[in-house]
Amino acid sequence: MTTAMVLALAILAVTLVLLISGRVPAEVVALLVLGTLPVVGLITPTEAIAGFSSPAVVTLGAIFILSGGLTRTGVGDLLGAQMLRVAGHGEAALVAVIMTTAALLSAIMNNVAVAALMLPVVMDIARKSGNAPSRLLMPLAYGALLGGLMTQIGTPPNILISVAMEEHGRPGFGMFDFTPVGGAILLAGIAFMTLIGRHLLPRRDPAGASRTTEVNLRDRYDLRERMFLMRIPPFSDISGKSLAQCRFGPALGLSVLEILRDGRTLMAPGPDTVVHSGDRLVVQGRLERMEELRGWRNLAVEQEGCGADQLISEDIGIARMILAENADLIGMSLREARFFHRFGVNLLSALRGTSAQPQSLGDYCFAAEDTLLVQGPRQTLKELAQNPIFTQFAVLERSELAGHRELQHNLLTLRLSASGGLAGRTLHDCALGDALGLRVVGILRDQQHILLPSPEATLEVDDRLAVTGRRADLLLLQGLEGLDVQHQLAPEETDLETTDVGLMEVVLSPHSRLAGKTLRDLHFREKFGLSVIALWRTGRAYRSGLRDLPLNFGDALLVYGSRDRFSQLARDSDFLVLTQDVQEPPRRDRLGRSLAILAAVLIPVLLGWLPIYIAALLGASAMILSGCLTMNEAYRAIEWRAILLIAGLLPLGTALEQSGAAHLLAEILTAGTAPFGPKALLAALIFFTAVGTCFLPPAALVVLLVPIVFSIAAPTGTSPEALTMGVAMASASLMSPFSHAANILIMGPGGYRFSDYLKVGIPLTLVVLATILLILPLVWPLRA
User: Fold this and answer.
1) What residues contact residue 657 under an 8 Å CB cut-off, 6+ apart?
2) Element (H, E) at 56
């Protein structure tokens, strides 16, 4: 084994580990591979970046734009509505028609786009037909995945093997060379799902989509389990304040759904709605947070308080600095900026111009040229002085602190009494910052001053806490603590829907940039005027703590508020609403143009006048120039993750081939199967591919397998056309929700668990593999 082979196999092994573990984004792994290969000398720098000019990558990017143009002009919507109209209400007929419709669209469009396009349509059909979405959505995803197998542009693996054939000196596959085998697989898949597979699907309806009454929707999400009444007593400190000022969400994790006042019901109140004594609030959340307030009520505010000079020591200092105009913090809140975690210092005060910011620091947003006073270790302050986003940096001496009145104005001293419930608990457990927007910057205990205390610091009786905050925050605490909690709700007090107010389910769109962010980070309620009151994830509903729960692809969000606001949310490209009524209407006036462009792409390719990547590029440009798609929409239509993944891993395939590692792997794979003939070799290869898609993105798997397949074909006398076709057909990703974006997309709306994909996907995969073994040798002879 040569040094080059060892290096190539080592890089391959590390790549597989990183891709399977998911600890590093797949596209980042691909770029690391691209950069490493020329450094170790396996390929030249020119060969390393050749993936970005590969016909496969160019074709894929152009097809994404073409698919986006067809979607925005309503081609898929129109075809889907017409075909689904003939299915009636029978479950078997619906499954067959949904899969057929999705498959036909996926043959000419990106399959993820097809799943996203048809998801609201199928949800509406579930409501009208009385079928649970879980009985229809998995057939939708599988129809989209199987339909893409039928044409050259249907899936990235099909495009990849077509280009690979030409690069290895073989005639490339044509547009419909995939159709005989792919069509047979599709028919077998539809037959299986209609006759057997649908009986393996669960009957779950997380959003009550198959019911017409709002009562059933509440029951499906168990909304009443976390709903209760709170009455505002006379002379309450929160009377006369808006809901935003009361901080029900940030402080208590509660959503105010209705306000009952003088026999009237104010539904879906906005953040500016003012509450008054005597109001009864229908809220949703956990009562445990209310119980924690009982421990905070005995925090006594010292009139004198501690001075700012007590917040510095030999190791801890206070500095003044101005935020630069080009700072990336501008517009962010303290929480969004993760200020303490990023810089290692506490923000004590912020001045804009000559005046301190009137709001609590918890609500403060950074602006250019704000003057910031921060507290931190002196070594950290010295390093911070070198950061270009801060200017006019100066560490303040003890004598200079007295001149900063705004600092004293923003500093409170709280004493823990023996009757309170905080003694013996850590700062983390007390969650003072979450409840009141306060941050403890020092614990003053007898003669000991603990500055910059860690979250694990334990509080003791008579501790004095130096905190950043306002006295108004503590008055708010007293008002929240005095709320009268009533557990029983009358049925009429939980009617959440009227003609003006309602519930709607949304998911993250396939191209969303919001995965990993929280509703608090997104300012969701402030931006859309809607409340997320429940979330469905991996087969269960979550109804509390939603503000700080990172969003994942596949989550279904139950949104509550004014129906007028639903359309605004539907226009946001990061979300996909699961009803057609509020979606942005397609550009139907450009429908003819998009169809003409599609025909202009396909006809020259079928007649052999143009290669697919040139025709697709011209078609993508025409989609934008004709107004079928805007430039921004075109950028959003491209799955950049797939582009970077393929372009970054193609050089690894080159390195495996040139180093001889592909030949070595081919010998290992054929050692046990070659004696049994080409059909056994094909069976082993497609089985390996099908299982591999559970752990690796299909496109990445095919990129890595192609050089090995060609190394297998020559010495065994097997047709490379047959083997590569088998690999492409077996890469449909049916057994795991995380192996393909189409599977993830339907997970939340369908209420699916991981086991549901295994229960249906494994037998369907076996049907697909059996069909490949039966049909492929008839169309593509196995012997070269």
Assistant:
1) 707, 710, 711
2) helix 55-72
For residue 298, tell me if it sits in a domain: no
Alpha-carbon distance 127 to 572, whole Å?
Answer: 24
Q: Is 212 helix (H, G, I), strand (E, B) or coil?
A: coil
| DSSP 8-class letter at 446 | T
CA-CA-CA-CA torsion for 100, 105, 108, 109, nearest 10 degrees? -130
Using CB atoms within 10 Å of the CB of residue 649, give its burial: 0 to 12 exposed, 13 to 18 middle, 19+ buried.
buried
Whether 388 and 514 share a structural domain: no
In contact, 606 and 598? CB cutoff 8 Å: no
Strands 556-562 and 531-537: antiparallel
For residues 250 and 362, the answer to whether their CB atoms sit within 8 Å is yes
Over residues 222-239, the mean pLDDT reads 80
* Chain Cα centroid distance, residue 544: 19
Residue 211 has pLDDT above 50, yes or no: no
Residues 367 and 244 in one domain: no
pLDDT category of residue 574 using cuts at 50, 70 and 90: confident
259 and 141, same domain (yes or no):
no
- Which of 387, 409, 431 is a domain's end point? 409
Domain range spanning residue 522? Answer: 498-577
Average pLDDT over residues 403-421: 72
Residue by residue, DSSP assigns 511-559 as T-S-TT--HHHHTHHHHHS-EEEEEEETTEEE-SSGGGS---TT-EEEE
φ, ψ of residue 343 to 5 degrees: the values are -110, -15
**What is the signed CA dihedral for 464, 466, 472, 475, rounded to 10 degrees?**
-20
What pLDDT score was predicted for residue 505? Answer: 85
Q: What value does the mean pLDDT take over residues 396-415?
A: 76
Nearest alpha-carbon partner for 193 in 144, 117, 142, 147: 142
CA gap 267, 253 in Å, rounded: 19
pLDDT in tens, 273-307: 898 888 888 888 777 666 666 666 667 777 776 77
**Strands annotated E in 181-333:** 227-231, 255-261, 264-267, 280-284, 300-301, 316-323
Verify that 187 and 251 share a domain, yes or no. no
Q: Verify that 317 and 336 share a domain, yes or no.
A: yes
346 in any annotated domain: yes
Of 491, 518, 545, which residue sits at a domain end? Answer: 491
Is the same domain home to 191 and 231?
no
Answer yes or no: do 238 and 259 share one domain.
yes
What is d(CA 619, CA 594) in angstroms, rounded to the nearest whole number?
9
Is residue 168 assigned to a domain?
yes
Domain count, the chain: 4
Identify whether residues 95 and 171 lie together within a single domain.
yes
AA identity, residue 353: G
CA 691, 694, 698: angle at the middle one, nearest 5?
90
pLDDT higher than 50, residue 651: yes
β-pair partners for 356: 351
Distance, CA of 663 to CA of 76 (rounded, Å):
44
**Helices marked H in 107-256 — which ranges?**
111-129, 137-147, 156-167, 179-192, 198-200, 214-220, 243-246, 248-252
Under 8 Å between Cβ of 91 and 616: no
CA dihedral angle for residue 699, residue 702, residue 704, residue 707, rounded to 10 degrees:
-140
Instruction: Identify the sign of the CA torsion 617, 620, 622, 624.
Output: negative
The residue with tokens 């605490």 is 477
Place of tokens 């070594």: 379
Q: Which two tokens stand for residue 28?
A: 């980042």
Say if 272 falls within a structural domain: yes
Take residue 304 and report the two structure tokens written for it: 């004198």
Cα-based distances in Å from 366 to 46, 337, 755: 44, 9, 46
What pLDDT score does 675 carry?
A: 77
Confidence of residue 467 (pLDDT cuts 50, 70, 90): confident
Beta pairing, strands 540-542 & 484-486: unpaired
pLDDT of residue 290: 67
